[in-house]
Write a sequence for this structure.
């Protein structure tokens, strides 16, 4: 067994088939929620940096994570059957999300643009610029939540 | 109200205080699991690219997400009280994780190094190199799982 094959076997064991495409609808919901939760954590860290002791490196790494997650093609996690709760796997997505794809693309595109700008600005390390871009990014999050996310349930 | 204050108010509304530091132990567990799930999804995408139709752009974006998540300081999500299940919030971390911090640093550092190399290699777009680096990265995931993660429960 060559090293390459061994390495791939280990990797296959690691991820199993759990997340190999195509994903089950409930896994798509879980993973998209994971992505949003992880981005929210990093937004929270940036906010704490803006409001408190500014740590350029932490803010830059947080923004880089948000941008990279935003770039990773989460649209693939809204496949058929992911429009409602599946057992214990809850989703707050509204039916309109699946009916207004042009609007989804517009709002997702706006977020992606601002998230990448946020990463760029955060890497620059200038607090006032980061504060402004954090606000702009947050507005694009909120625009999509307002349009396509149900209230807590 | 200036634009800046308005923007920050919106951002604050958006993330609420849910993920503002310091996080509750159950939120730390949820967010670290979210990070690992999101990385696993992206590892799965890279594997599908290696095994099937190679899409350089998708593989590069997946690897960038893994690296950025790895760089984002997830060690902060293993605070006091996160060593065991909290209600419905389950964790598979072993007690040893909190007792062998040098080993944790070693394994986490190895993963972080390989994840960043994975992002670099994936950005290069060369399939054979990506396959090799994917294997190396997977080994560092597995090393930590073997040492510090309980079997499914």
């Amino acid at each position: 067994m060559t090293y390459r094959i061994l390495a791939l076997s280990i990797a296959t064991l690691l991820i199993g088939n759990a997340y190999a495409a195509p994903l089950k609808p409930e896994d798509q919901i879980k993973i998209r929620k994971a992505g949003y939760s992880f981005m929210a954590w990093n937004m929270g860290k940036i906010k704490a940096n803006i409001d408190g002791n500014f740590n350029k490196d932490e803010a830059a790494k947080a923004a880089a994570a948000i941008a990279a997650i935003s770039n990773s093609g989460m649209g693939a996690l809204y496949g058929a059957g992911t429009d409602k709760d599946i057992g214990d796997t809850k989703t707050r997505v509204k039916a309109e999300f699946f009916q207004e794809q042009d609007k989804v693309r517009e709002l997702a595109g706006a977020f992606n643009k601002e998230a990448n700008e946020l990463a760029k600005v955060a890497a620059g390390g200038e607090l006032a610029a980061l504060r402004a871009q954090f606000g702009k990014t947050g507005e694009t999050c909120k625009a999509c939540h307002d349009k396509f996310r149900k209230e807590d349930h």
Observations:
- DSSP finds six helices and no strands in chain A.
